[in-house]
Design goal:
single chain, alpha/beta, TIM Barrel, eight-stranded parallel β-barrel, 12% strand
């Protein structure tokens, strides 16, 4: 039964949660505690603790609800030492998922995000296993030409090509998959989503915290990207860098998905990022800004397999 009347000192329980997990989530300023949506003791304590650990309101709410769900599922114990990571406690879809896009490899390896078709072909022929065309233009005809050129550019290679945002052009050109941000995903009508799923294209979705991961799971994407892990100047981010500590708990929750880490990740950070369990690291500047992009890509691909070789 839910503990609808608090039977424990919620403040003390919140302090215990913070004490156990402060090191993992170090570096974040406390956030205001959001208005509670229920009065269960475990939920209230977790809500306070998550806010103290720097989780923004909708993520703190998401984790607190999961903490309460786990307590109810396991006989009422709050278990402050154990951060929740069971998919069912976050109400993620059970596997096999009722709503799901076509699958992609669990480990997508080095994932190069590139500005045009020429770069896509260059990195595909350099052996990069996963490439994304992130082509920015308001010209529909130019977009369609660039997407077709990118699809042609990976022919004869084993690279998997994702198209950022331009999903209609990606379907028409026969791309492997598309990648959408949260705003792009929310902009799709049910008919658009059905057409996209029916096309057979793989879908990757960007997330920046727990609430967005739960939102992404509802459509059953082929992979989920998590970030920004570190500070990045490539785009203005609505959320603070998530850090490796958060990436680790996100990766555990999403263990049944292929997972991509993205955002400000350089070669020197590959070991700690890969240690979280992600099977792919997305890079932009690490190849595009390199003096020798092919050599840089080769070094990064070697860094992807070094932890496995040492294990």
């Amino acid at each position: 039964m839910p503990d609808t009347v608090p039977t424990v000192d919620t403040g003390h329980l919140a302090q215990q949660i913070v004490a156990h997990h402060a090191a993992t989530f170090a570096g974040f300023a406390p956030e205001p505690v959001p208005t509670p949506t229920r009065q269960d003791a475990t939920y209230l304590a977790a809500l306070q603790a998550c806010s103290a650990l720097g989780f923004i309101a909708h993520d703190a709410e998401c984790v607190a609800q999961a903490w309460q769900a786990r307590a109810e599922r396991t006989g009422g114990a709050a278990q402050p030492e154990l951060w929740p990571d069971a998919p069912q406690d976050f109400r993620l879809q059970p596997v096999p998922r009722a709503q799901a896009f076509a699958p992609c490899p669990q480990d997508l390896g080095l994932y190069a995000v590139l500005p045009d078709a020429e770069w896509v072909g260059r990195m595909a022929h350099a052996g990069v296993p996963t490439v994304q065309l992130r082509y920015k233009s308001a010209d529909k005809a130019a977009i369609e030409r660039e997407v077709r050129a990118a699809v042609a550019a990976v022919q004869g290679t084993s690279a998997l090509l994702f198209i950022n945002d331009h999903w209609q052009a990606a379907i028409a050109a026969g791309a492997y998959g598309i990648h959408l941000g949260q705003e792009d995903l929310d902009a799709l009508s049910p008919a658009d989503l059905q057409a996209l799923r029916a096309s057979g294209l793989r879908l990757g979705v960007s997330t920046h915290g727990y609430a967005e991961m739960v939102r992404a799971d509802a459509v059953g994407p082929s992979y989920i990207a998590m970030g920004a892990v570190f500070p990045t100047t490539l785009k203005k981010m609505a959320t603070a860098p998530q850090g490796v500590g958060r990436l680790g708990v996100y990766a555990r929750l999403l263990r049944h998905y292929p997972r991509v880490a993205i955002g400000g990740i350089g070669a020197e950070q590959f070991p700690e990022v890969l240690a979280t369990g992600v099977g792919s690291i997305a890079v932009v500047r690490a190849v595009v800004n390199a003096d020798d992009p092919e050599a840089a890509a080769a070094r990064l691909m070697l860094r992807m397999v070094e932890p496995a070789a040492r294990a």
